[in-house]
Structure formats: C-alpha cells, structure tokens
Design a protein that fits this description.
Elements lengths: L1 H8 L15 E3 L2 H10 L5 E4 L20 H7 L3 E5 L6 H4 L4 E5 L4 H15 L2 H14 L10 E6 L17 H9 L2 E2 L13 H7 L3 E6 L7 H7 L8 H4 L3 E5 L10 H22 L1
Parallel strand pairs: 1-2, 1-3, 3-4, 5-6, 5-7, 7-8
Length: about 280
C-alpha cells in the first residue's frame, strides 16, 4: 500500500490523484459501488452499472465490459471506474471520460484500490480505516486442520451439471480461510469452476455451504439439503452437514466480505458440531 500512497504524492498522467476532486464518478462494478457507499462517497456517484445495488435514482450505464457510453456521457461523470478484467474497453471509455481501472483479485489489490477510491471520493480517512479492517479481517486464520469445506455458488444443486464452486484462490475463498477453515478444493481448478457429481463424491467434503444471493423464503435451506438427497458416498449428505447462507449481496466482493467471514464461521461451527456428533 505504501507504493500506492507514494504514487499519489507525485501522480502520473491518468493516475487518480491527477483528477480534480470535483469530478463525479461512474462506477461500473458492484464491488466498487459498495465500497464507495461504505466510505461515504455516495454524493460523488453520477452513474452505476446494471448490476450495482440501487443508489438513489442514479441512472445505470451497462457494465465494465459493455458500458453504455451515451448514458455515461449524459450522467456528467468525468471519471469512469471499472474493475480490472480482460476486455475492459479502455480506449472507448476514454472518449467520454477518464477511465480508472482498479485491480481487485486479491486482498492486497483490494486494499490498495480502496485507498485509491478514497482519494477519488475525498474520503481518505474512511478509506484508510476500511483498508486496515479488510487486511486484518481477511487474514488467514486456518491452521490446515479441521473439516474440509466446499463453498457452492447459488441455490439447490443442479444435478444435470454439478455444483459451481468457489475457488480457493478467490476473494470468497479467502473468507473461508479468514473464518478459520480449509477449502476442500486443495488443488487449483482448471477451466470453469464446476464439479461433476462424480468429482464431488470423489472430493467428498465434510461440509458443504451454499452461498445464495437471495433472501431466504423460509424453505431455502431445506431445498438446498434435499437437492443432494440420495447421492451415494457423499459424507455431507449422510451426516446432514449441508448448510446455506442467504443474502442478496453474498457474492459481492466489496466490504461485505467481512460480514461473510462472520456468517461462515457461525454456519460452519454449527455444522461442525453436528459432524462431531455423527462421528
């Protein structure tokens, strides 16, 4: 982070610090919008992406990979924020404003980018506090022991294709380490993060947790559990150690990751107690 801060003292062309503070921001990524809201920089926002949470009556302007440049221009935003990814059309965005592409694939990158967002929004003090909380709150605490936990994306299991899972190296994978548990996926996945049912049984995690980006309708957990019914050789089904966390923002990669650490710790501890009883 020291490198980021020192860069602001002598900004290079296109560096966030070289931009007038009065310029309004367009955020083309939910994690960036959530972070600006957490910092108190809501008043700087002029436009948000199609997938961002609602913010006042702000217009929406597509996504980082497919921005609606006309709407971005009409919003009056001078700075267009995007999360770093292959395919962000920086040259096209430059026609309507100043693109600022922020790395966000690791805790270190996220913390550095939080500081940059603080500079852009005039919320430096809040950004320094949040960056520190993220660095401390997402630090690994697992010692390599304990149950093997598989994090699954979405609601009930789709048996036709198998579960979509959280990679160990991702930010959500980091929340599992910060909660004090180990990922059942000890080896990096190649290709799409999806397991066949055969691979799931072979992996045989002690605990399975679904991260469901929706409110619980009261039957969510039962639906998730029943979707595994009868899969032979699956310990989590046999020992009833399948759980779920329902939250509309559970898959977002902003400051809400800190709340997810707490939620995972509570849910996995509850299921770990059941696992011990089954043994």
């Amino acid at each position: 982070m020291a490198g980021v801060l020192s860069g602001f003292l002598s900004p290079a062309p296109g560096d966030p610090a070289a931009l007038p503070r009065s310029q309004r921001l367009a955020s083309l990524a939910p994690c960036l919008t959530h972070t600006l809201l957490a910092l108190g920089g809501e008043d700087r926002l002029a436009l948000i992406s199609d997938y961002c949470p609602p913010v006042r009556e702000l217009p929406r302007g597509g996504t980082a990979l497919s921005p609606d440049l006309e709407r971005v221009m009409r919003s009056g935003a001078g700075v267009i924020l995007a999360r770093a990814a292959a395919g962000v059309p920086v040259d096209a965005i430059r026609r309507v404003g100043t693109p600022v592409v922020l790395p966000w694939s690791s805790v270190e990158e996220m913390c550095d980018s939080v500081l940059q967002l603080g500079e852009l929004s005039g919320c430096n003090e809040s950004a320094q506090t949040l960056a520190r909380e993220l660095k401390e709150g997402l630090a690994p605490t697992a010692d390599g022991s304990g149950p093997k936990v598989l994090l699954v994306i979405g609601g009930p299991l789709d048996r036709s294709g198998g579960p979509w899972v959280i990679r160990e190296s991702s930010l959500h994978g980091q929340t599992l380490k910060a909660a004090g548990f180990r990922n059942a996926l000890e080896q990096p996945l190649t290709g799409a993060p999806q397991l066949s049912l055969e691979a799931l049984v072979q992996l045989n995690p002690d605990i399975i947790i679904h991260l469901v980006p929706a409110e619980d309708d009261g039957n969510g957990l039962d639906s998730v559990r029943e979707s595994y019914s009868g899969i032979p050789g699956l310990t989590a089904w046999e020992r009833k150690t399948i759980g779920a966390i329902h939250d509309p923002g559970v898959l977002d990669e902003g400051p809400g990751l800190l709340e997810l650490v707490t939620g995972l710790r509570q849910e996995i501890q509850r299921l770990s107690d059941r696992l011990e009883e089954a043994r």
